[in-house]
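User:
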Amino acid sequence: MYQLIQKSSTTNLRFSRPPVLAGYTYAAEDAFSARDENRLLALRLETNAACNLKCRYCYAESGDPGKEADFSLLERVVREAKELGAGSIVVIGGGEPTLYSRFEDLISFIVDNGMIPVIFSNTIAISKRLARFLYARNASVMGKLDSFRPEVQDYLSGRPGSFTAIQRGLRNLMDAGFSDPDDSSRLRLGVSFVCNRLNIKETDTIWRFCRDHNIFPNMEIITPTGRAKQYLAQALLEQKQIRQYKEKLLGIDRRNYGYDWLIYTPLTASGCLQHLYSLYITLNGDVRPCAPTKLDEHPALRQNGRYLFNVNDKSLKDIYDSELFHYVRHIDRHLEGKCRGCEYGDECIGCRGYAYAMGINRGLGPLEALKLECQQCFK
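Assistant: Predicted structure:
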């Protein structure tokens, strides 16, 4: 086995940092700097509950076709995010965002306010025309590619024929120019693959496909929340499995592409520091640190049955400045277990969403759950 890196890629001159997805991933130094200067870098928005899939790992359990965010509210929070310093808006849907009735208006509004729109989509509804529309507006797109085996993709997506439809949408994006970026270090197309026991052996194949086609590989580890608790509880990965495949991917990157990265971060080869620089707004207007950190569902943070941090009741700045979200942004000071005092704390805080979900499932309070040591880390 090759030797694991001991420090980040910035200390190893033989290799370079892997490319990022513009507007979605930010370097650790930018994340900590934004946190310390009380700036947002990104805002994540749910827009609608409707979805053309029923993914078995969906954290949002999407599906209600009639539930949409008010466009005027989205306009307001986008403006407020800009005032807080945000450079990108991640349109994450809550369902499939391209089904939002004012999807194109929202993308244009983000662009008109000088920010990068980043769209999370299963790509099924992305026609050739829509792909060209998004490309012309400097958008980044995160598609879906859980498997190259139709039966596995269809099962995980919860819909027969989804593999073929996903591949068609991905091809439309590539044909529009998304896989031919002007800057090879800042990509415009990514694919997300949620790793579990059904697809983990394909990880290296998907990884190579991404690297060979200028696509950002967004390898996520399945989180025990939402539908995953019901459908994929037996498909969760063990630390040993996570380590094995991350080691394999690091070896592929070093040997074939000249990239080096810290192997312990939750999002492979890119880290995840969302809690430091981002906010997530649900379809109801509730504000979270990230999608699986469901503070809004915990009774300890409700008053008279209502969550206390909602953009229908408060400005984004008031929520950002609150004691709770100050705690969230400085969670690195409160971490427990092996995350506490970790030598890589300047670029990794573990997966806070996974830690939160595991803690809540064990009956812990929200603040206690949030600071647990990372359950994915094999350091």
